[in-house]
Structures are given as structure tokens and as C-alpha cells.
Amino acid sequence: MSAAETVGEPPRLGTLETQVVDLLWDEGTFTIRELIDRLPGDFAYTTIATVLTNLHRKNLVDSGKRGRSTVYEARCTREEHVASVMDHALGTSRDRAASILNFAERIPDTDLDLLRDYLRRRDEGINP
Q1: Between helices 45-57 and 15-27, what is the axis angle to 10°?
Q2: Are 84 and 6 within 8 A, CB to CB?
């Protein structure tokens, strides 16, 4: 089950958790040492290992093997995670329809065009 499919509140991320998962979303699979080399700052191996354990507990990261090394990768895409956050936010509204309409009022015309095109294609049975 991806993070976007989990029931309940999406996981809240701390600053370092966000930096780590951003690297995984942007660039793929890393060992702890590779993450340390790419992160800004000077982090202890155990600090990044703890962050990855926390991200795994939050269903955002999976681990596997590359040779003798443990590697980590994102369990879902950034877009799936953002969608789960948005869905949760709408779910906390007392008036979901009003929240959606207020959101639609705020988004740029280019995003509205994207949404219109998606809905048109979906309604016509075209794979969006």
C-alpha cells in the first residue's frame, strides 16, 4: 500500500525527513552514505539511519539490497503523497464542496485548463 492509499492523516515530516525523502523522490535509490554525501550539512550515519527508520514507519520509504549494501527508495511518488495530503485536508473540512470550490477559485488558469482537459479526457474514456 502506498502512502497515498493509507487511511487517516498523512505523515507529518520534519525538516531532515523532508530533505531525505526529497532526494529519494528526485534521484531514486540511495545508501545511507550516499544520502549523507548529498545532504547539505554534516550528518552522522546514525542520524540518517534513524530518519530512514522513521520514514519507513511512516510508509514513505522501503529498503532493499544492492550487493552487500542496504539501499532506500521512496514507497510512493511525491505527487501521490501530495494527493494524500490534499485528500486529507478536504476530509477535515465541514463542507468538502465549499472547500473544493474555494480551492478552484485560487488556482491559476493554466491549472484550471489542465483540470478541464483531464476531466474531458476521462469523460470521453481516453486514458488521462
Answers
A1: 80
A2: yes
Task: Give the pLDDT of residue 52.
Answer: 98
Partners of 61 in the β-ladder: 74
Give the three cell numbers for residue 85. Answer: 495530503
What's the one-letter identity of residue 88?
Answer: H
Q: 82: how many CB neighbours lie within 10 A of its CB? A: 13
pLDDT tens digit sequence for 1-41: 444 444 577 888 999 999 999 999 999 999 999 999 999 99
Residue 118 CA from chain centroid, whole number: 21
| Of residues 55, 56, 21, the one with CA closest to residue 35 | 21
| Contact status, residue 52 vs residue 32, Cβ threshold 8 Å | yes
Kindly compute the dihedral angle of the four CA atoms of residues 44, 45, 49, 52, in this order, to the nearest 10 degrees. Answer: 70
% of the chain residues with pLDDT over 70: 94
